[in-house]
User: Fold this.
Amino acid sequence: MKKILLSTRDFNIGGIEKALINLINYLLEKKYDVTLVVEQKEGNLFEEINENINIIKYTPSNVKNILLRKILNLIKRCNFIIKYKNRFDTSISFATYSQSGSFVTRVASKNPILWCHADYLCLFNGDKSGVKSFFKKLHYKEFSKIVFVSKKAQESFLQIFPEQKNTVYCNNLIDYRRIYEQSKQKIDLQYDDRVTTFLNVGRHDEKQKRLSRIIEASKILKQENYKFRVIFVGSGKDTEKYKKLVNNYGLQEIIIFVGAKKNPYPYFKISDCVVLSSDYEGYPVVFLESYVLDKPIITTDISDISEIQNKRGIVAEKSSKGIYAAMKSFLENGMVIKEKFNIKGYNKEVKETLDEVL
Assistant:
């Protein structure tokens, strides 16, 4: 039986965490022995992890005394090496940014894999030295493979590290049956055919998600007397900032905050269009969720948008004006999905790539 180790930080609600759960379930289908290493045993999605996997907690010390912290972390590292060095056939650092995740993955097997979920050149605002420093801290050269969930992210990486011949493109699996089933759950909000409903699902982090663009666009559309509403599913460090902006603009009746939801799919069901306003992404899981539930998408030019433009939605400029123009176009003209998403064929291709990688 093949033994696989995966590492991550926690299981708070997010696209990476959903993708990891789907990957774990696939590995269990393959009858692999799966071990999960987490920094924190917490998060709303933690209870969704299959009970048949082994869970190890590896939490680096963060005591303020630098010398003591280094000693404690050295002891932790030594203990992990003694217990788990090369005990697995394959190990995966799934939370790219985690340096401790990188460490345990490199120790655990001779086939360590780094999983990347973002376009890091965009993340570092085009600063190549910042990207180099980021990956150097992860000891990227020690990984047998570096996997990217989007083609654009892979291409950006290779611009900076052209010598790396071990990169692989492998998108995320999607559990479409579960999405269909969970979308039937009843919620307080209902579909309203008198107004167009836009939906945003994600973490409230202005640096990346730029939800202020949707709020600014909504302000102008309200002034132009369009009938619509926007549902924000999610939470984060900038939630209160967004609520204050909505109040300042008098948009309380138009923009609805429902908080983070373990099951966001009923909100897709009552919406007409999904909106992403981010500055950068890897490959958003919300794209796949929208495809499964046949919802058109408005998105900024973030990642692998060839499947959206003129097929399943509108690609907007990365600005409030761009989001405004796209939302206005949808309000006036609607959007017919021209190409049905082949979810079974998509998952089949992903699984074939996963089998090669592992």
Q: What stands out?
A: The longest strand covers residues 3-8.
